[in-house]
Amino acid sequence: MTFNEHFAWTRRAVLGLAASLALVAGGLPAAAKDKPLKVAAIYTVPVEQQWVGRLHQALKTAEARGDVTYTYSENVANTDYERVMREYAEAGMDLVVGEAFAVERAARNVAAEYPDTAFLMGSSFGPAKPNFAVFDNWIHEPSYLTGMIAGKATKSNVIGMVGGYAIPEVNRLMNAFMEGALSVNPDVKFLVTFINSWYDPPKAKESAFAMIDKGADILYAERFGVSDAAKEKGILAIGNVIDTSGDYPGTILASALWHMEPTIDRVIEAVASDSFEPSDYGQFSFMSYGGGSFVVDETLADPEVLKAAREKEKEILDGLFRVNVNDAEPKSTM
C-alpha cells in the first residue's frame, strides 16, 4: 500500500556487537515491541526497478508472515525525501527503510530528529548513532562467478557493460565481473558506459546497441533495457540483482542475484526485541549469509566453465576464496 493509503486509515562488513549478541541470544526481552511492527519504505524509483524491488519483496515477505505492516512511497524525488521521512516518523513507524545515496546528509539529519524510530538506509557510508543503520547490495561474489561464465562464452572477446551511476555500489560489481571474466579468458576486452540514471531503459538500450555495433557479443545488464537490446540482436546478456531469464528466455546466460531477506529479517528481529543498534548490515548480502547467489542457464553455458564456477562458489562459501572489492570506476579496455 502507498503512504497515502496508509494515512487514510491511520565499510562496512562488520555488524555492531550489540546487535549480533542480541540475535545470538534469541528471544524477546520484557521491553519487546508488539508485533506486527509498523514498517515504511521510501523509494526514489518504481518498485519494479530491480534494486528497490529486492527490498520491496523482502518486506512483502515479512508482511505475509505477519511480522510487519508495510507501507511505502515510490518515485520520491530527492527534494521530497526529507519530507517523506518526517511524515513516516511522525506517523509512528517503528522502522523506516530507504536509500540515502543521493541524500546522505539530509537523511541522517532527519533520522537524528526521531531517535525512537529505527532507520535502515542503503548508503555508501557508515552507521550513525542513535538510530541510523546502513546496508548495501554486496553481490560482488556472484558477480565474479557470472564473469567467469561470460568470459568463456564470448566469441568476439568483447563484452559490453552498461551501468547506472559510477558509484562504489555499482563499480565493485562491474569490477568483480570483469575479474571473473579475465580469470578464464585473459584476451577479453570490455566496453563500459554509465547512463547516469537508475531507471531509463530506453537510454540503457541505446547504449547497449552502440556496444553491439563495436563488436560486443555479450552484454552486462546492470540496468533495465540492456537485455532488450541483447534479445533484439540475438546475443547473450548477464543479469544483475534479479533473475529475468523468464522474461528473456535464451538471452540471459547467467545472473548475480541479491536477496534482501537476511538483512530485513535481522533488522526486524532487532527492532522487535528492542535491541536495535545503528549497525552496518552490509555483510548479510554476502553469499555465506544467503544474501547473494548466482544462477546459470545450463543450456547456454560452457559445461567446463560452469563446473569451474561451481567449484569457485564452494570456495567462496568455505572461506577459501575472497573476491576483490574494487570501488574504482571501471574503464573500457578497448
Helix percentage range: 25-40%
Poorly predicted tracts of residues: 2-31
Shape: globular
- Give me the CATH fold name of the largest domain: Rossmann fold
Number of strands: 11
> How widely separated are the two ends?
47 Å
Into which percentage range does the β-strand content fall? 15-25%
Largest sheet: 6 strands, mixed
Structural class: alpha/beta
Q: What is the overall pLDDT average?
A: 90
Order of helices and strands: HHEHEHEHEEHEHEHEHEEHEH
What is the total domain count? 2
Can you summarize this structure?
This protein is an alpha/beta fold.
What does this structure look like?
The chain is an alpha/beta fold. The chain folds into 2 domains: 3-136 and 260-284, Rossmann fold, CATH 3.40.50.2300; 140-258 and 289-317, 3-Layer(aba) Sandwich (Rossmann fold), CATH 3.40.50. It has 11 helices and 11 strands. It has helices at 3-9, 17-25, 50-65, 81-90, 104-113, 140-153, 168-184, 201-213, 226-233, 261-272, 303-317; strands at residues 37-42, 68-73, 95-99, 118-122, 132-135, 158-163, 189-194, 218-221, 236-241, 252-258, 292-296. The strands form 2 sheets. Strands 7-6-8-9-10-11 form a 6-stranded mixed sheet, with helices on both faces. It has a 5-stranded parallel sheet with strand order 2-1-3-4-5, with helices on both faces.
